[in-house]
TrEMBL record:
An annotated GO cellular component: endoplasmic reticulum
Annotated Acidic residues bias: 23-32
Entry-linked PANTHER family: LRP CHAPERONE MESD, MESODERM DEVELOPMENT CANDIDATE 2
Region (Disordered): 21-45, 141-188
Name of the molecule in the record: LRP chaperone MESD
Coiled coil regions in record: none
GO annotation (BP), single: protein folding
Source species of the chain: Piprites chloris
InterPro entries listed in its UniProt record: MESD
Biased composition (Basic and acidic residues): 146-188
Alphabetical keyword list: Chaperone, Endoplasmic reticulum, Signal, Wnt signaling pathway
Family listed: Belongs to the MESD family.
UniProt subcellular location: Endoplasmic reticulum
Length: 188
């Protein structure tokens, strides 16, 4: 049995054990758990349209935090970007979308959503804004009304991801070719 200690003599480890004992019997509701410890929401496969891959993403991101990058067209200062994205955030707030906004560059902002199921509706709102150059959501770049004509190709995958995949394939092929144990086995 553990010795009885005076509370004034407790160190950090003793306090941590005491906290664990208190929390062991607590019933924590699912909504109070951190997002990574919550069970995933059940997916209703009858609502999935096989012709639209976005419908699958909408259902899998429902209830999860999601971030999208938004680029403001032209050459705005950071203050202009702040003002423009603030107007967009206000419009989304008036439409009952819970969106937080973070400026990450002179023409770039992150929109963070508490419920990723609404991300594609918000993306549609943003790309219809005059000063929106593009919206990046789940690795897809969607050009906005303010995009240059040469950038207005239909939604494209980020070129960085495709390049990383090619580099990874080259490395794996070179590793297979340089594997000495394989060469010795073939010679035997």
């Amino acid at each position: 049995p553990p010795k009885k200690k005076d509370i004034r003599d407790y160190n950090d480890a003793d306090m941590a054990r005491l906290l664990e004992q208190w929390e062991k019997d607590d019933d924590i509701e699912e909504g109070d758990l951190p997002e990574h410890k919550r069970p995933p929401a059940p997916i209703d496969f009858s609502k999935i349209d096989p012709g639209k891959p976005e419908s699958i993403l909408k259902l899998t991101k429902k209830g999860k935090t999601l971030m999208m990058f938004v680029t403001v067209s032209g050459n705005p200062t950071e203050k202009e970007t702040e003002e423009i994205t603030s107007l967009w955030q206000g419009g989304l707030f008036n439409a009952n979308y819970d969106v937080q906004r973070f400026i990450v560059g002179s023409n770039r902002a992150i929109f963070m959503l508490r419920d990723g199921g609404y991300a594609w509706e918000i993306k549609d709102f943003l790309i219809n804004q005059e000063r929106c150059a593009d919206v990046t959501l789940e690795g897809q770049v969607y050009p906005g009304k303010g995009a240059d004509e040469n950038e207005k190709g239909k939604n494209k995958t980020k070129p960085e991801k495709a390049k990383k995949k090619k580099d990874a394939e080259k490395k794996s092929n070179s590793i297979k070719e340089d594997n000495r144990a394989t060469k010795q086995r073939e010679e035997l």
